[in-house]
Automatic annotation (TrEMBL):
SUPFAM superfamilies: Hemopexin-like domain (SSF50923), Metalloproteases ('zincins'), catalytic domain (SSF55486), PGBD-like (SSF47090). This is Peptidase metallopeptidase domain-containing protein. Residues 36-196 form the Peptidase metallopeptidase domain. Keywords: Calcium, Disulfide bond, Hydrolase, Metal-binding, Metalloprotease, Protease, Zinc.
Amino acid sequence: MQRFFGLEESGDVDPQTIVAMRRARCGLSDVEQFKKTMRWTNRTLTYRISRFGSKLTVAQVRTAFRQAWKLWAQAVPLKLRRQRKSDADIVISFNNKDHEDGSPFDGEGGILAHAFFPGPGIGGDVHFDDEEAWTSTNAKGCNLLAVAVHEFGHALGLPHSSDPGAIMFPAYNFGLHTVLQLSFHDVKDIQEMYGKKEISLDRLPPKTPDKCDPTLSFDAVTGFQQELVFFKDRFIWRFDEDAGRMMEGFPKPIALEWPGIDSSVDAAVAHDEHIYFFVGPQQLEFNPKIRQVTQTMAANTWLQC
Ligand SMILES: [Ca+2]
Ligand SMILES: [Ca+2]
Ligand SMILES: [Zn+2]
Ligand SMILES: [Zn+2]
């Protein structure tokens, strides 16, 4: 699994790997190799919610799933229809611990959900761990929509992506303040399976920046402790000054390092045991000890306005 987090494939479990592994993730194994691409042959697929969870209302769950399917169906000529009764292609449920498919859930945290690739029976089905703190809002907890978009990608046949900007990256994209959307790679991968939809997307899917792109420009560069951090869009790279080299596993979404910083930043500075991120007319004060944004202020408060 190390390859998927952009870490060195050392085979040893180093502290960096442990951090990546402890993070909430999808239960689908990265090690699993796919003999052939599995995809649905029908262009209209049906889904049914066979068991609702205990954390969200029926309406909240239905809305999240409808929005999640819509993101994929905007890119490809597929129709997803909710079915109340009888068999559906994709059966979705919230489950606890062992739920008789050989992949028991692990209680709160860790694995949040898993899905099966297209096929008959359990194929295409999606299971969510009912013990997670599911939310339908931007509040703390697990945003059901963010997890559902990823799992539904598997239900349509997509494996994990090594692009850290992709919905199909094994760690979920919990950018709570950003609009959830498919990345350039997600769109390319799903269109390779099902073709392009004639109606174009509302806006172009974002590309994860490439550090060696000769036209690359940075939004901000700043020094934190013994590091230099390079910002571009919602991603960063970190340069370790002691080791004299770029750290492995980057680019990474800013929000994975500093939760709550979900957009591009104009400037960032470390001061008085806090980090200040400047985003448009605002600045976000981040406390690294508790890993939280502690205050939002006007960007020009430093200038005593
Ligand atoms: Ca879990
Ligand atoms: Ca099924
Ligand atoms: Zn996954
Ligand atoms: Zn399951």
